[in-house]
Fold this protein.
Amino acid sequence: MIGKYIPKTEITNKWLSKKLGQTEEWVYDRCKIKTRHWALDESVTDMAVLASEEALRNSNIKPSDLDLIVCNTIESQFIFPGCSQQVHGYFKLDTNIPSFDMNVGCSGFVYGLHIIDKLPYEKVLFVCSELQSTFLSVSPSGKDSSILMGDGAGAIVWDKKNSFKIIDSIIFSDGRNVDKLYGSRKYSPHMDGMIVFKNAIHKMREMIEEIFSRNKESLEDIKYIVPHQANGRLVDHLGRLFKTNKVFSNIDKYGNTTSKNIPIALSEMDLKKGDKIILVSFGTGFTWGACLIEW
């Protein structure tokens, strides 16, 4: 049901620190990341296809049985067509299987689940693929972004009748903060780190509490809270706010992989039928959202 693709090239803090004119300790203390993976030859579409193939194998669903393909990416291989159409073409699917792209940055996976849940399609391939390394300034001036970002893809094949179900989901947007977190046409990411960090913590906490309140659930009923892996300090802070070790984290291995980090996290979790988890994200726009899922 879930698939992922992680590029083979591992970028260590030792290598980065030399490029950035900093120490390894400085890099780790800023983000709690030990390694991240960067693509050398793979495109956004290549990674999307590889993650999708694994998700299809794990779900025992043939590509021809799909009803819809959705892709979220902030950096499609072409301006047009979208990544989803390229995945559609790779699998040589019938024309009655629609496809479309989203660009919601770090909130893309939660946004996508919220939207797909309301569409009249039963078997959906949803893939998040991101290639950011080629646009980073790996230099002292670009250190704040280059220590964080990783490449890769995560995919799910969601058979709504036979897999997890969304109990509740909420999404939000505030376009007044576009200038606080954005990428230009040449991408060169801009982030007002302190404002983004404070808003992310506040909104994530608020959404988790709202999900609990709306559904009469508590932390004791939840196996994991799975936040967007933006920064290790942020993930740790969320755990302290709720006084729990149920906040899942794998950012130390992959870095901030934008929209794909939640599906990658799901691929590494030991989930059993009936387990309840909360997915929560915050990202560019600003956009933010949360889902309560029963596995």
About this structure: The domain at 165-294 is CATH 3.40.47.10 (Peroxisomal Thiolase; Chain A, domain 1). The chain has ten helices and 13 strands. The longest strand covers residues 165-173.
